[in-house]
């Protein structure tokens, strides 16, 4: 044992955390990205799983400290060596603590992400989008999570950007919460193929999601299905709407449709932006194996939903100004602070936009939405 560790006891480690709690400037909240109440709640949940027994050789590291180490790693992105000096725990032990605690957090928070299973639940989500984009039941996006070249992986994780990555595919609601996440697809898979290989697509194809039956848009008698809003990285299908490619003349139907879709879809951009800037473990490519990166990513997503729904942690996690602010005309007035904090070299990268020829019925559905938004814009411009 190194000399700086010899005076380490359970009491000294507990006292270190208590000093943070007692600090009136709110250092503990900055340290863990959450309130003390939520920290204690999570501690009570995971303690039975992560607690270790003392031995004749040494005292076990308390569960409270194990949780604090993990939350600090996720919040700061500090490497194991930096955490070693902060907590007086060896990097080797920290490398074991973090996956164990992340696995425990995944178990206790698994209900924080739950894809709707009934038509009523989907309609609740549609209510949040209805003003900007009726029949929308979620905004979908995918990201490459970059990592150092995994050992003995060959080209499995090598992507078109000449980096190594796994892919995160996520669906969010209008309240900036994740309702579905699929993590771990190899970076070499085409970006369009990620969605086609996902559990979400399988459920869509087998009608296992219980999505409400199609019905007409206001002022129309043509049935349109409920849809997810995507960008150019996704293929246009009956249940996924994407923008028209290229530039279009101001005031044209296609431009108006693209603007309407962008205004509604911006929630997923904000959600990913918050996730990456608040959990700074994503600030640079991971130097971990793909399995651990997937585990850490899912832990951050679950914590994101948990903190967004917490009355005590919400002001800490997303204080006023974090999310984009729009006026009554859906014009961006104050960009979210996450846009200034996002780093260009972060581990989270966009998917490639690939042009694809859609099926005729998907084009007809998009045209029906286009006609609706164009007619709506004409009505709003009337004196």
TrEMBL record:
Localization in the cell: Nucleus
Pfam families: DDE_Tnp_4 (PF13359)
Listed InterPro entries: HARBI1-like (IPR045249), HARBI1_dom (IPR027806)
Keyword entries, A-Z: Hydrolase, Metal-binding, Nuclease, Nucleus
Lineage top rank: taxon: Eukaryota
Protein name listed in UniProt: DDE Tnp4 domain-containing protein
Molecular function in Gene Ontology: hydrolase activity; metal ion binding; nuclease activity
PANTHER family in alphabetical order: NUCLEASE HARBI1-LIKE PROTEIN (PTHR22930:SF269), PTHR22930
Domain DDE Tnp4 stretches: 140-305
Organism: Parnassius mnemosyne (clouded apollo)
